[in-house]
Amino acid sequence: MSQGRKGREREVGKKAGARRATGTPGLPGSLDAVFGVHAVRALLSRGDIPKVLWVQEGEAQQRLTELVEQARRGGARVERHPREELDRLAREASHQGIVAFAAPLAFESEASLWFKLEAWPHETPPLLLVLDGVTDVHNFGACLRSADAAGVHGVIVPKDKSAPLSATVRKVACGAAESVPVYQVTNLARALTRLKEFGVWITGTAGEAEEMLFDAEFTGPTALVMGAEGKGMRRLTREACDGLVKLPMAGSVSSLNVSVATGICLFEAVRQRRDA
Asked: What is the pLDDT of residue 33?
């Protein structure tokens, strides 16, 4: 480990929505439609009671009794609709017989990120995911799902060049959008520089990197930066990184989908931290 990284780790502890659902036919007011069992369960578990809950008539209604009753006790208005209406509302999303209409999900503020790092509440060092230019809602949702599964403490995105926290993102994330803090920063390169002040080592991913992912170290305070599919990280983001890594590609393709690559990278960090 480099002296610079060791020095930063000592500082930790010292400084310790594709579309918004709005406008979809049949959508109550200006609320987001949250599709699927996992996403609705995550919504309820964090105490966000939907204003309205649509439940598919028939067999699905019985299967979803527990969720429906939990929402009703919280004050949600429960409505039963035929499957055709839920299909029309969900379009490409799989609703699994249940749709919750809730207030749009908001990004966490940049100030709250610095506050969390200042008074770090966990025994394990920070593991952060940074998404630079990931604008596709399906990729964004899949990245959030991987982040949740890997125990990531927070996801950082720029105010520009980023997908919204839309209903589709929430559905693809299967509840991870509600459980993983997503911090929106005004200037990503500047935010990465600020992370270094908290002892966080910034590791970016790039196809031209010399170091392989599996040779890098992720046991200390780490921010893993993933760039947009095809374009990769922006220049200033790349320059703010402490080091670059790449995945060993043995076949004919030159790169992986960003959400797939994110999962591989995050779980390499999980493996190292488990074995440390």
From this structure: 86
